[in-house]
Specification:
Layout: H1 6-9, H2 14-17, H3 24-31, E1 56-60, H4 66-78, E2 94-98, H5 109-112, E3 114-118, E4 125-129, H6 130-136, H7 138-147, H8 154-160, E5 163-165, E6 179-180
Parallel strand pairs: 1-2, 1-6, 2-5
Antiparallel strand pairs: 3-4
Helix pairs in contact: 4-7, 6-7
C-alpha cells in the first residue's frame, strides 16, 4: 500500500472510483492496483464496405434437412462466420445452392406445410403444399426458408440477392470458381 493509503491513489483513478469511493470491495481493488488494467486498450472493429472480401461457395442440398441447411446459408450470407462481422455492413459471401429439388424435410411437412401467395385481387389467395412447390418451383422453397432468417431490411434484401438457387446439379457460376461449403448436418 502507498504511503498515503487510499487517498493518495484516488486522484489516479478519480474518474472511475470517486463515485464508488464508499464501496469497500472497489476500494480494496484500487489499493491493489487493479484499476489500471481496466483502461480501454482496444477499439471495437467495424468493417467498412471497402474492406470486405467476398467468396463464392457451393452447397449441394441433396439429402440435407431444409431448416438446418437454411440457417447455415443465412449465416454465410450475413457474414457471421467471419471475424470481421459487423451487423450493419454486408460482409457475407455469395452462396450457390444446387440440387434444391432433393432437399429433405422431417415429419409430415411435405403434405402439411403450405406456401401462400396473393394475386392482389379480392379472393386471390392461392396456396400450395411443400410437395407441390418442390415439383413446380424447388428453388423458391430454399429461398423462402433463407428469407425468413435474414433481417427484414434493405440490408437483408441485399444479402438475399447473393443467394443463387438451382433445382438441378448445373449452375452458370463456374467462372466465379465457387468453393464447396462445409455443411454441418446435425
Amino acid at each position: 500500500m502507498t504511503e498515503g493509503g487510499w487517498r493518495s491513489i484516488a486522484p489516479a483513478v478519480a474518474g472511475r472510483v470517486a463515485v464508488f469511493a464508499y464501496d469497500v470491495r472497489l476500494r480494496r481493488a484500487a489499493e491493489r492496483g487493479l484499476f489500471r488494467a481496466m483502461t480501454p486498450s482496444t477499439k471495437t472493429y467495424v468493417a467498412r464496405p471497402t474492406d470486405r472480401e467476398r467468396r463464392w461457395l457451393l452447397v449441394d442440398a441433396s439429402g440435407q434437412t431444409l431448416g438446418r441447411l437454411a440457417t447455415q446459408i443465412a449465416d454465410v450470407l450475413r457474414g457471421k462466420r467471419k471475424p470481421q462481422y459487423t451487423p450493419h455492413i454486408d460482409t457475407g459471401d455469395f452462396v450457390v445452392v444446387v440440387n434444391a429439388e432433393k432437399v429433405h424435410v422431417t415429419g409430415n411437412k411435405r403434405a402439411d406445410k403450405r406456401y401462400y401467395r396473393h394475386s392482389g385481387y379480392p379472393g386471390g389467395l392461392r396456396s400450395r403444399t411443400l410437395a407441390e412447390q418442390l415439383a413446380r418451383r424447388p428453388e423458391e422453397v430454399i429461398r423462402a426458408a433463407v428469407k425468413g432468417m435474414v433481417p427484414r431490411t434493405r440490408l437483408g434484401r441485399a444479402q438475399l440477392r447473393k443467394l443463387k438457387v438451382y433445382a438441378g446439379p448445373d449452375h452458370p457460376h463456374t467462372a466465379q470458381k465457387p468453393e464447396p461449403m462445409e455443411v454441418h448436418a446435425r
